[in-house]
Amino acid sequence: MKRIVTYDVKQGHDYQAFYDYVEQMGAEKITESTYLFDTNLGQRDFANKIRSLFKRGDAVAYISYDSKAGTLFYERL
Q1: If you write DSSP's letter for every residue of the chain in order, what string do you get?
Q2: pLDDT, tens digit (0-9, with 9 covering 90-100), for 63-74
Q3: How many other C-beta atoms can be found within 10 angstroms of the C-beta atom of residue 17?
């Protein structure tokens, strides 16, 4: 499943855990704060993983496309 993660990290917070995950997953950088992931993780597991990489106060969301239903899905984390 292809999923896009976009974020705005609160000043003083660290991006490193997210960048490490981006590298581990081979995610593609789209913009300075937007990455495309191709993952086998289900929706809940992916959301929980991404949520764990950021801190309270960071603005994080992900977008995915359900090709079977032809719908776009967006969730703030």
Answers
A1: -EEEEEEEPPTT---HHHHHHHHHHTPEEEETTEEEEE----HHHHHHHHHHTS-TT-EEEEEEEETTTTEEEEEE-
A2: 987 777 888 888
A3: 12
Q: Which residues contact 36 (CB under 8 A, 6 or more apart)?
A: 2, 3, 4, 27, 28, 30
d(Cα 51, Cα 77) in Å, to the nearest integer? 6
pTM: 0.86
- pLDDT confidence band for 46 (50 / 70 / 90): very high
Q: Copy the structure tokens of residue 57.
A: 């106060």
